[in-house]
Write a structure and sequence with these properties.
It contains three helices and two strands, in the order H-E-H-E-H. By secondary structure, it is mostly helical.
């Protein structure tokens, strides 16, 4: 609800929540968001499950688009890790103080 209140403050005429990616395929999350949207007078838009792909595919495509636009590569000095601790900063290497 807090996010919806912030959204309303900036966009008072908008009332639509769009959920996409892998989260949109989760029926429990979808049901909870539907109840929240009804209580907050928002419209919930969710694509069909066949279009709710894993976010990794969307992130990879965003990278392709960045490279095609000439944005160049990012600093790849840090290897990706599954389940990266949230306490670490974006560019903090593993084992370093946050």
């Amino acid at each position: 609800r807090f996010a919806m209140d912030l959204f309303r403050a900036d966009f008072p005429d908008a009332n639509t929540l769009v959920v996409a990616g892998g989260v949109a395929a989760n029926q429990a999350i979808g049901a909870a968001l539907a109840r929240l949207c009804e209580a907050e007078d928002f419209i919930l838009r969710v694509p069909p499950p066949r279009l709710c792909t894993d976010n990794a595919a969307m992130i990879a495509w965003a990278g392709v688009e960045r490279l095609a636009a000439g944005a160049g590569g990012d600093d790849l000095a840090i290897s990706p890790r599954a389940r990266w601790p949230l306490a670490l900063g974006r560019h903090t290497p593993p084992g370093a103080a946050p």
